[in-house]
Amino acid sequence: MKNKNLLIGILLAALACALAVAGWTLLPDTLAVQITAAGQTGNTLPKFAALGLPTLLAVIFSFLYAKNGNTKNLAVAVVGVALLVLTFVFNL
User: Which residue from 4, 22, 45, 64 has the least number of CB within 10 angstroms?
Assistant: First the structure.
């Protein structure tokens, strides 16, 4: 079970890092992080914060999950990856 947790943790952390690197090269300098009901940009952040915060969230909690197998840590790591994916959806 420990090996499975380690593999999942490493894969999630690698996915988050890959999305951050792709976002850094593909996305504009100011990123929309919230979309209103009308489809307009709600809030924006600089690229460093908009990509860095969810990446840190995903990487830290992926390694916590790999270390002790707590599914709450896995859930937070998946949320971090989902936030990175949403950043792409909002900005491409």
Answer: 4
